[in-house]
Every structure is written in C-alpha cells, then in structure tokens.
Design a protein that fits this description.
The structure holds two protein chains of two kinds.
Chain A: H1 12-49, H2 55-60, H3 69-78, E1 84-89, H4 98-109, E2 113-114, E3 123-127, E4 138-143, E5 148-153
Helix pairs in contact in A: 3-4
Chain B: H1 3-26, H2 34-58, H3 65-82, E1 95-96, H4 99-125, H5 134-149, H6 155-159, H7 169-181, H8 189-208, H9 214-226, H10 228-233, H11 239-260, H12 263-277, H13 281-302, H14 320-329, H15 346-351, H16 353-365, H17 371-388, H18 392-414, H19 420-426, H20 428-431, H21 433-450, E2 456-457
Antiparallel strand pairs in B: 1-2
Classes of the chains: A alpha/beta, B mainly alpha.
C-alpha cells in the first residue's frame, strides 16, 4: 500500500542516497532532542520536588507576577459577589502597567463586575493612592494591605 | 487525592470515553497500538466534546457537571449506536526499517519522548505558570470564567473581553473544568493543556503508524517534544497550540487518506477541522487551505474517486452557528486586528507591501534562531525534496499547504490594523507554530514515501 503511489522503481544509487539522508535525519533528530532533554528533565524534576500548593494558593500565587496578591485577597473578601467595582490607580508609588493590574483585579474579583468609572461603582479599589483622592463620597473603608483600600461608594439618592 | 484531583480524573475519563466511542463511527477503533490509540482518542474526545459543549453553550446551556455528563453520555450512546464501520481502518502491523539500528533509533526516540512528557506533566501539575502567558490572563481564562459564572455564553460579559469574535470551544471546556473542580481554579488548566499536548503527540504517532516506521516517527516526535518553545508552551492554557493540534492532526489524517485510501482517515480529518474551526478564527482559514490542497491532490491522484475529499471544503462552515450567535448578540464577527476588505484595495496593498515582505522575512528567519527549530525545519525541507522524487503530488500537497499557510498569515499581517512590529512580536511565533508543528509531524511520513522500497511490514 505504501508504495502504491510511487512513480517508478528506485534506482540503487538514489536508494542509497535516500537511505543515507534518512539516517542523517534520524541521527540529527535524536542528537538534538537528547541535547535538550537534560534541561527539560531537570525543570520537571525541580517541579516534582517542589511542594504542591493548595488549590487556592496555586490560583493566586502566579498573579504575584503582576502585583501584590494581598490586595487581591482582601478586595475579594471585602466586596460582595453581586457588587460592581472600579479600580482607581494612583502614582504613590507609580504602577508600571496600570492596565495590566486592572485586568488582574478583573480576573480575581469576578463575578464582581468592573464598571470602570468610580462614580458608577458600588466599590472602588484605591490602589497606590489615598481613598480621599478618588473623588467619590464613601461610607466604609477597608484596608487592602500596603497597596491601598476598598471604599464603599455613597451614591446620591435619585431625585 | 483531593476533591479537585478526583473531579479532574472523572472529567478526563469522560473526555477519553467520548473519544474512544467516537473512534468507532470514524472507523478507527482498532487503529494502531493501544497507547497511541488512547492519545488519538483523547484528542478526538476533546474535539468532539468541545464542539458539542460549545454548540450547547451557544444555545444557552452552561457546561455544568450534569450538562457535561448528559451530553457526554449522549455522544457515547450515539457513537456506540452507529457502531463500527464496514470500511474501518484495519489493525496494521508496525512497519520496520533499518534493522537493529532502526529499532534502536525508535527506542531512544521513545524514551526521549516519554521523559519529555513526564517532565512536562511534573511542571504543569504545579500550575504555577498559567499566568505567565499574557493572552491566557487577558482573554482566554476570562472567557472561561464568564461562561462559568454566566448562563450559556453571557453576551455582555463576553463582549467586554478582548477578541469576542474568537469561537468558544476552549473557553467552554475550561468552564466545564471549573464546574468539575467546584470553583474558578485557573491553576488546574496547565495540566489539562499538557495532557492534551501529550495526547496530540501520541495521536500523531498513531496516524503515522502504518505509513512510517517508528524508526522515523519516534525520533521526529522526540525532536518536536523537546524543542524548547514547544515543550514550555505545552502547558499554555490558550488556543494557539490546541489549534495546531487539530490542524496538524487533520493534515496527517488527510495525507494518510491520500496514501492509504482509508475513508476513516478522511472522516477524522473532517472532524478535527471542525474542532479547529471552533477553536480560533485561524482554524477556518488554515482548514480551508488544507482542504483545497488535499482536494486538488486527491483529484490529481485518483480522478473521480478523489472527489470524496471535497467534503473537507465544507468544514469552515462550522463557524456559522457561532457567527449567528455573534450577530444575535450584536458583537462584530471579524477581528478588529485586520480588515479582509483591504484585500480588494490594490492601492492599500501596494502602500503596505512592506508589511507583507517583512512578515515573510521574519517567518523565514524565525526558525533559524535556535538549533532545535533549525534542525526541524531543515529536515522537513529535505524530506519534502526527497519525497518529491517518488511521490510528487503528495510532496507538493504537503509543501503547498505549509507555504500557503505561512503566506496566508503574512497576508493577514499585510492587511492588519496594528503596527507590523506588534504582529511580529506577539503573533508570528504563536500562530506560525502550527506551520512548524505540521511540518515536523509530516517529515517522517514524507521520508517514508521516499523510502517505500526499503520499508516492510513486520
């Protein structure tokens, strides 16, 4: 079956060339893959020897790549699941990538919905800024560790 | 074993069960040896269950544990009901070549592949790198999260996430995983992605069995598995590699059909292309190119009998339900990153020609940046050239698709709305990976065609 589509019988000389080429390919493939294998095996071995985190820590710890996880945990505890929120990021000290940080809060706080505008949110996360500087009236302030606060916004009653 | 581990085990058994059941109506129930067949079953199960759950989610059905269980049971029942095909792929003995040295090469390749796979599992099981892939955090996981917290696919939440036009197969399956584990737990996703990647490698071995001796297939797959960018990305919870698995599987199956005339392989290619179409927008485009190339080759090789391959041309239509859902939700169906209408504007294309040429230059240069990819690409090119002397139509089909897919991607960057540097930094290596992975897995097949005089059945 394998040879059914072939054009013609292979001349001996060409057959030897093809066999040699295939042999070179096999040797090169094995040599290169064996060359990489030790570093990959060591990465796997190191991971195997590492203590497996709890499911919750495993979910949270990788986000430290983008910002302090304490603020994420405390914000999730402070803001009820059905509430809306906004993240107001200040410059004390400056945050390298505010949009990225906002995305991480969105990810961790879901199903709480980020409405963007602090004036329209139930809660505002004042990050690297004082709660007063956000510019909304609020009643409750909850500490989120050294990175900021979560404040419960007071919305004026509808006329 | 904690609750999440138990739940994930049950979920994976379900995926595997659906896959094994689906192999029967495909005609692949006795195909290959057990372990590679299990890999093929997992890949097929992932695609089948993913397609069914995505369609159900579009209809408003959330991938909860009861829903996934019922849909899985219905799929298994339907597949078992259809039963084995009369034209099923027969159980073929492994091919042999190169004598004892060939067996040694296969053994070393197999050990390397196994070691790389176990190391990848050990790393992914810790789940600590899921956030290292920005696209995962930026939109793939948030989409799964939206489905998990919503009912069906919540239109408002979906529209607020980047790339809402991407079809929902992967986010729906990830949402199902969250339901099984009882909460939003993104750290379990890397292990799932790695299991799928290993299943893909086994599936590729399965599809090469009967055509290529393992002395050729195992070293080639070992090289792919240990190529650093492939190995590190195995655990990526994004759609890029998953698209590559589906498209590559379809390419292998359809070329296998060209060679062996097994209808089972054609049916498999059809199913995998549908799953690919529902994974990423590029799935439809790459699938269509593959369908065109295979159809032309089939007509050239078989004449009227090759018309069966035309069925592959219909696979991009799998996107229609998703387009209807998007239209109903008022969400644009095309990517904001490029405008297809620009293809009809010669002046625009002429002004932006440098984007096309720069993209091609980067695609040609990129594989030569490190020696594993260089080895992989050089051997693939040599295999195409050698195979062309013995099986010119099949070699041309393989080379044609690889060239068309790469050129097509460059064409998308040509009409892109973002700076070309963005595509080069963020897109080429991810989306272009499909082309390299397909080339790597086609290599042993092409070499086998050239060596068909010297390969025998055991």
């Amino acid at each position: 079956m394998l040879g059914a589509h072939r054009n013609s019988q292979m001349p001996d000389r060409w057959r030897r060339i093809v066999i040699a080429a295939a042999a070179v390919a096999i040797v090169a493939q094995l040599a290169v893959s064996l060359g990489h294998l030790p570093s990959l095996a060591m990465a796997g071995g190191r991971a195997y020897d590492t203590k497996t985190p709890s499911l919750r820590d495993g979910d949270l710890d990788p986000l430290a790549l983008y910002g302090g996880t304490q603020a994420l945990v405390l914000a999730r505890a402070a803001i009820p699941p059905g509430a809306t929120f906004a993240v107001s990021i200040g410059t004390d000290p400056p945050v390298a990538e505010p949009a990225v940080l906002r995305r991480i809060f969105d990810l961790w706080l879901a199903p709480r919905r980020d409405v963007g505008d602090p004036a329209k949110a139930d809660w505002v996360i004042a990050y690297h800024r004082s709660s007063e500087s956000v510019g909304v009236a609020y009643t409750t302030e909850t500490g989120l560790g050294p990175d900021g606060n979560a404040i419960l916004v007071t919305h004026p009653a509808a006329p | 074993m904690n609750r999440a581990d138990t739940a994930l085990t049950i979920y994976n058994v379900l995926v595997l069960g659906v896959g094994f059941a689906a192999l029967r109506p495909l005609g692949l129930a006795r195909h290959s040896t057990r372990l590679p067949r299990a890999g093929l079953a997992y890949l097929v199960g992932f695609g089948t269950l993913g397609t069914a759950l995505a369609l159900a989610a579009m209809a408003g059905v959330s991938p909860t544990v009861p829903a996934v269980s019922v849909i899985g049971a219905v799929l298994v029942g339907a597949c078992v009901g259809i039963g084995d095909r009369s034209d099923a792929s027969p159980e073929r003995p492994p091919l042999r070549a190169f004598g004892r040295r060939g067996r040694l090469a296969a053994f070393v390749g197999g050990v390397t592949l196994t070691t790389a796979a176990l190391a990848a599992i050990a790393l992914a099981a810790k789940g600590q790198l899921y956030a290292g892939f920005w696209d995962a955090v930026d939109f793939w996981i948030p989409k799964a999260q939206a489905i998990y917290y919503g009912s069906g696919i919540p239109a408002d939440a979906w529209a607020s996430i980047k790339h809402p036009e991407y079809p929902p197969l992967l986010p729906t399956l990830d949402a199902a995983i969250f339901h099984f584990t009882g909460g939003f737990h993104p750290s379990v996703l890397p292990l799932q992605a790695t299991l799928l990647g290993i299943a893909f490698l086994l599936a590729a071995l399965s599809l090469l069995d009967g055509i290529a001796p393992r002395a050729l297939s195992l070293p080639a797959l070992a090289l792919l598995a240990t190529t650093p960018w492939f190995w590190w990305r195995l655990q990526t919870p994004t759609g890029d590699l998953i698209l590559a698995y589906f498209v590559t599987g379809a390419a292998l199956a359809s070329v296998r059909w060209l060679i062996m005339s097994e209808r089972a392989s054609l049916r498999l290619a059809f199913g995998l292309l549908i799953a690919g179409t529902l994974t990423k927008l590029e799935g439809g485009f790459m699938g269509l190119l593959l369908a065109v190339v295979i159809s032309v080759a089939a007509l050239r090789l078989r004449g009227r009998a090759g018309r069966a391959g035309l069925v592959l041309l219909t696979t991009p239509l799998a996107i229609v339900p998703w387009r209807l859902w998007l239209a109903n939700a008022g969400i644009p169906g095309s990517s904001p990153d490029y405008k297809l209408s620009y293809l009809g504007r010669p002046a625009f294309l002429a002004d932006h020609l440098h984007r096309f040429t720069e993209s091609i230059r980067v695609m040609v240069d990129a594989p030569f940046a490190e020696y594993a990819s260089t080895t992989l690409v050089v051997i693939a090119i040599a295999a195409v050239l050698i195979a062309a002397t013995r099986a010119p139509v099949i070699a041309a089909a393989a080379a044609g698709w690889l060239a068309l897919a790469a050129t097509g991607l460059a064409g998308i960057y040509w009409i892109g709305t973002l700076p070309i540097s963005w595509y080069i930094e963020n897109s080429v290596s991810r989306v272009g990976a499909t082309v390299i992975i397909t080339a790597a897995t086609l290599t042993p097949l092409l070499l086998s065609l050239a060596l068909s005089d010297t390969i025998a059945e055991e």
